[in-house]
Write a structure and sequence with these properties.
Elements: H1 3-15, H2 21-28, H3 32-47, H4 57-71, H5 78-89, H6 105-111
Helix pairs in contact: 2-4, 2-5, 3-4
Length: 112
Amino acid sequence: MNEKADALLRTYTAHGNDDRALELATNIGLTVEQFAAAKMLQIQVERSPLWTASRSPHGLMVDCIYLVAKRAGMKVSAIKIRKLTLDLFGVGTQPRPSVWQNSFKETIEEYL
């Protein structure tokens, strides 16, 4: 199996139909309110007609939690998030909100 196929299999195995956003948010130190803001942002982006699925649902979840943590002034980095997701889920996911956030500036401001 090639490296990309192996990563996809590990991602599916780690997440399947389970939403593990709360687990990640808790480990970063987000409050319930901050987690709710990240989750609402994720839902609104996914439901938007502007969404082109440039990130997987898991990747978008990581991006939204990362954005909330950064806005809250938490000391998180893309490398730290990647390591944490690897430790928690067995698959490291680097946040990449820059891939989509320009199209959703108003939505981000509304929920964060």
